[in-house]
Design brief:
The complex is a heterodimer of chains A (153) and B (749).
Chain A: E1 2-6, E2 9-13, H1 21-28, E3 47-50, E4 53-56, E5 69-71, H2 83-90, H3 100-113, H4 119-125, H5 135-149
Parallel strand pairs in A: 1-5
Antiparallel strand pairs in A: 1-2, 3-4, 3-5
Helix pairs in contact in A: 2-5
Chain B: H1 2-21, H2 25-32, E1 46-50, E2 53-56, E3 61-64, H3 74-86, E4 93-96, H4 107-112, H5 123-139, H6 149-176, E5 183-186, E6 189-192, E7 197-200, H7 205-208, H8 237-242, E8 257-263, E9 270-276, E10 284-290, E11 293-298, H9 301-310, E12 312-317, H10 326-339, E13 344-349, E14 357-366, E15 378-384, E16 387-392, H11 397-408, E17 415-419, H12 433-444, E18 450-453, H13 456-461, E19 469-478, E20 485-495, H14 498-507, E21 529-536, H15 551-568, H16 573-580, H17 585-598, E22 608-617, E23 620-629, E24 637-646, H18 653-672, E25 678-679, E26 682-683, E27 701-706, H19 725-737
Parallel strand pairs in B: 3-4, 8-18, 16-17, 20-21, 24-27
Antiparallel strand pairs in B: 1-2, 2-3, 5-6, 6-7, 8-11, 9-12, 10-11, 13-21, 14-19, 15-16, 15-18, 19-20, 22-23, 23-24, 25-26
Helix pairs in contact in B: 1-5, 3-6, 11-12, 15-19
The chains are: A alpha+beta (153), B alpha+beta (749).
């Protein structure tokens, strides 16, 4: 049994300690927002937050999450739409949409660390892959979310 | 072989019948595709108005979208067609996957396969189109591809909207006791002449009763459109932003099992047996042989996948070319280039011999490419006595049903296919390998649903690849070096035929030995003489349809060569194209737009350059200018891409722009990084670290300009953005460095 906090709730999971968090979420906890894309931390589709940091959940073992706090896209908006999701809808970012939960979680972490990121900051932080090529919309949405969060919207 | 023969006869018969019955075909075609009021999953609290639209007591209008939403915005575009003619409010619109019925067949994709160019008209073309429409109805072929969805839906779905509106007006007339002539519809409400409301659509559900569909009133003129042509928000964006959209990989059913697969390493190989090294671990219930490989089935995909890699020894049977490598393949192609009989030869214009001609020649190469949809390949299936249920991100429920039925040996009526959101398609998801394996797995655990998922490594190593191709362009030039004159051009091209292989492996049609149609499209330019010789190559590497199909590599060959030719003729690449497109006003307008918007001709810093390319594909004309910088002579940076498109009438300009950007990035990933190589009969690449894609940091700034060339033909937008980008970048590299790159991916190393 491994215990950790998931989207604000205490959870206990009976799974192998070496099982990657991504598969614990998807197979044991019915949390399917984080997506499988590569399994080698190369594409970012599985990005979640662990203690506030963006982490590629395909490459961290359940055992390493014990006692920590995990946030997935499902837990992002509590009662009201998160500013990043609001910006994503305003800018009509998703196409196929498969990679977007990963991008959104990476963006939320970026804006917590850098509330007003430059284009270079965005390039450095968002190394996820989107095969539909929504990159220019993502860039617009990140800047827009920064504006919303700064209260200047 | 018997079913194949019958199908061939049917195709022939369809064309013949068309010759006899080709009168009044437009009216018949829309009526044939309207569908009954009970067809579209009508539930309690809903009223069906025809096969494409139903209304709910909650005032929701639900539209049947029988096409795969893989990011191209088809749900939104198709719902807009219905909403426009119904005069519905955009925010009351929803979409739903309709049941299997011939009214939802994609007629245009068969029309597209006819040997006419999209712009051609006339009685023979009409008859052939009519026949293809009838044939699509008979085959019931539901397929998303060829950038055809909006063109296919344009008349049937607008007609469905107009018929629905008419029916609601008559229902409101019943309710209000007023003649229909006294009523009108606006934004989801029926109004009296004084503007007062009779009812919302939802309030009419009890008055629709047994009213039957009447012949539709005339459809709106473009000047009357209220929704079409507007950048309305996409219907799928909220769910996709909340992480709530269900893709194939997210399907969860009671008692669901997962299956991981290892496919035979060499192409065309199989597994003949296996030996367990130890007992099955917790989480793995059984291991079985499946078509093409071996599957481990259990309660954890992660465990099953790990077990396949570590827990057993498999006896692999090699495919027909277990020693094949890329160098051998290129040698084979080079030999074919020199001596093979072409499968197709075509000439345009008249050949003449100049007095003193010089030959200018260039050879180009394009590699195999994988699709790498973000969502790896998967399919969920459940087999019960005599029936199969499939949940799958797929581009053709018809093909999936056909193969599921055959695999489980049940009649096609016993198969139901649920299409989820697709995490990318790009052509890969029209293939039937996953449904075959999923049904095979489900047969091993009857009554229980099994979700087959391939690892990214399996996805890259067992794709149906964009064909590798070799092309040699030649030009005959006469006159003095100071004033050269073009006499004619010829191209000899070697590639496998993706379409041929696809139809053979999915529908069982015989191999035709003909080149893929898009790969032999004529260039739009008025060359004095043009000759094409297309050789069809053979190899054990399976090829398939990859976003824009043959245009993806031939645009690189053709538009690189046109640039080189301009230089040989001492002309500016833009001016040269302008000359050769003098009698093509739509092409010319696209060309002039991209030139103006990109600042063509304006100076750039040293080490930078602009490159131009133009390609008409899937009924649309696209031109792009890429601006590159090569700061150190080696590192290639694509800074900016300007794109102009004429796709005919625009349903949703925001989606057209997004699709152009999407096509550019997809094509750019291939142009900069995409290369599948073969060693020992297998693919060498495995995952994103060695088969990379463009990311944010190397994505160019893009601007997209929509051009109205006055055409009423609905061009596609899902694919046409991809072909021009590789040659635009290669041409820009030449402008920046003087180096001509004739092989993809582009490398200055």
């Amino acid at each position: 049994m491994v215990a950790f906090t998931l989207n604000g709730e205490s959870r206990q999971v009976d799974a192998e300690a070496d099982k990657p968090l991504l598969w614990v979420l998807r197979e044991d906890l019915d949390i399917v927002g984080p997506k499988y894309g590569c399994g080698v931390a190369a594409c970012g589709a599985c990005t979640v937050h662990i203690d506030g940091q963006a982490v590629r959940s395909c490459s961290i073992a359940l055992g390493d999450v014990a006692g920590r706090s995990v946030l997935t896209i499902e837990g992002l908006s509590r009662g009201r739409l998160h500013a990043v999701q609001q910006a994503w809808i305003e800018q009509q970012v998703p196409q196929c949409g498969y990679c977007q939960p990963g991008f959104i979680m990476a963006t939320v972490a970026l804006l917590q660390a850098k509330p007003n990121p430059s284009d270079a900051d965005i390039d450095e932080a968002l190394t996820n892959i989107c095969r539909c090529g929504t990159y220019s919309a993502i860039r617009r949405a990140v800047h827009r979310a920064a504006t919303i969060l700064s209260g200047a919207s | 072989m018997k079913p194949v023969t019958r199908r061939r006869l049917l195709i022939g018969g369809g064309i013949l019948a068309g010759g006899v019955l080709g009168v009044g075909f437009w009216f018949g075609r829309e009526r044939d595709r309207l569908g009954s009021r009970t067809l579209f999953n009508v539930k309690s609290g809903e009223a069906g108005l025809n096969g494409w639209v139903k209304i709910g007591r909650n005032n929701i209008v639900t539209v049947a979208v029988p096409r795969a939403e893989m990011g191209q915005g088809v749900q939104t575009a198709l719902a807009m067609l219905v909403a426009e003619e119904m005069d519905a409010r955009w925010n009351q619109m929803r979409v739903e996957d309709p049941p299997d019925d011939a009214v939802y067949s994609n007629v245009e994709i068969l029309v597209d396969g006819l040997p006419f160019s999209p712009e051609e008209t006339g009685p023979i073309v009409d008859v052939a189109h009519w026949s293809a429409a009838k044939l699509a109805g008979v085959l019931g072929l539901s397929l998303t591809g060829g950038s055809t969805s909006t063109r296919d839906a344009w008349l049937p779905m607008r007609t469905a909207g107009a018929v629905a509106r008419d029916l609601l007006l008559r229902a409101a007339s019943r309710k209000a006791g007023l003649p229909v002539a006294e009523l009108s519809v606006s934004e989801g409400e029926v109004l009296r002449k004084d503007g007062s409301r009779v009812a919302t659509f939802g309030e009419l559900i009890d008055f629709v009763g047994d009213l039957s569909a009447m012949p539709p009133p005339p459809l709106k003129k473009p000047s009357e459109f209220k929704l079409l042509g507007k950048p309305l928000p996409r219907l799928d964006v909220p769910a996709k932003t909340m992480g709530a959209a269900t893709y194939g990989i997210d399907v969860r059913l009671p008692g669901l099992l997962y299956a991981a697969v290892l496919n035979a390493p060499t192409f065309g190989g199989s597994a003949s047996g296996f030996k367990l090294k130890d007992n099955l671990p917790k989480g793995v219930e059984t291991v079985i042989l499946v078509p093409g490989g071996i599957a481990a089935i259990g309660t954890s995909w992660w465990r099953a996948n790990k077990f396949l890699a570590e827990g057993l020894e498999v006896q692999w049977q090699p495919g027909p070319e277990p020693k094949l490598d890329s160098a051998t393949l290129w040698k084979r192609y080079e030999a074919l280039m020199e001596s093979a009989e072409p499968a197709l030869t075509r000439t345009l214009g008249s050949e003449s011999k100049g007095a003193k001609t010089e030959r200018f020649e260039a050879t180009y190469r394009a590699p195999y490419l994988a699709h790498t949809t973000m969502e790896p390949m998967n399919c969920t299936a459940r087999v019960k006595a005599g029936s199969v249920e499939v949940w799958m991100p797929n581009q053709s429920p018809s093909l999936m049903r056909m193969v599921a039925a055959k695999t489980a040996d049940v009649p096609q009526e016993g198969v139901s296919v649920h299409t989820t959101f697709l995490g990318g398609g790009f052509g890969r998801r029209a293939e039937v390998d996953l449904v075959r394996q999923a049904v095979s797995c489900a047969m091993a655990v009857p009554e229980r649903p099994v979700q087959v998922l391939w690892s990214r490594e399996q996805d890259i190593r067992h794709d149906y690849y964009r064909p590798m191709a070799l092309a040699r362009w030649r030009a005959e030039i006469e006159g003095s070096p100071a004033s050269p004159r073009l006499i004619g051009v010829s191209k000899r091209q070697v590639a496998q035929s993706a379409m041929d292989q696809l139809l053979a492996r999915t529908m069982g049609l015989p191999i035709q030995g003909k080149p893929e149609p898009n790969a032999v499209d004529n260039p739009p330019y008025a060359f004095p003489f043009y000759r094409l010789d297309a050789v069809v190559a053979e190899s054990s590497v399976p090829v398939g349809i990859w976003r824009s199909v043959g245009h993806s590599h031939t645009a690189f060959f053709d538009e690189s060569f046109v640039d080189e030719l301009a230089l040989a003729l001492k002309k500016d690449p833009l001016a040269f194209r302008r000359e050769l497109l003098a009698d093509k006003p739509r092409h010319l307008k696209v060309l002039e737009t991209v030139a103006r918007e990109s600042g063509w001709g304006r100076p750039l810093p040293p080490g930078s350059g602009r490159g131009l390319a133009l390609r008409a594909s899937f009924g649309s004309i696209v031109a792009q200018v890429a601006e590159v910088a090569v700061p150190d002579g080696k590192t290639l940076q694509v800074k900016r891409v300007t794109c102009a498109i004429d796709c005919g009438p625009v349903v949703n300009p925001a989606i057209v722009r997004a699709q152009m950007e999407s096509g550019i990035i997809y094509g750019l990933s291939a142009a900069l990084y995409g290369e599948i190589t073969i060693a020992n009969g297998a693919v060498e690449q495995a995952n994103f670290p060695d088969y990379d894609a463009v990311r944010l940091a190397d994505a160019p700034q893009m601007s997209v300009h929509l051009v109205d060339g006055g055409s009423s033909f609905i061009g596609g937008v899902g694919e046409p953005g991809t072909p021009p980008i590789a040659p635009a970048v290669a041409n820009a590299v030449f402008a920046a460095t003087g180096k001509r790159l004739r092989s993809l991916p582009l490398s200055l190393g």
